[in-house]
Design a protein that fits this description.
By secondary structure, the protein is mainly α. It has helices spanning about 5-15, 20-35, 35-40, 45-55. Helix content is about 65%, strand content about 0%.
């Protein structure tokens, strides 16, 4: 079960649209996996957790990810 970051806070970053949140998190996680492969091997967090943290902190917004 995901506790941090809270889903309501994440959804607020995408104007309440959980579909956009899912797509944004998925695309960002794929980017992280391709660019930080060596770092992820020793990290405590998975790419999706890092992506959700970045979204929650405002580092990534829906307009930041290309189609």
């Amino acid at each position: 079960m995901m506790i941090e970051p809270p889903i309501d806070g994440l959804a607020a970053k995408t104007n309440g649209n959980k579909y956009v949140l899912a797509i944004l998190a998925s695309k960002r996680a794929k980017e992280i996996e391709t660019t930080r492969r060596a770092e992820l091997a020793t990290a405590d967090k998975k790419a999706i957790s890092i992506a959700l943290d970045e979204i929650y902190e405002g580092k990534i917004e829906p307009s930041d990810i290309e189609d």
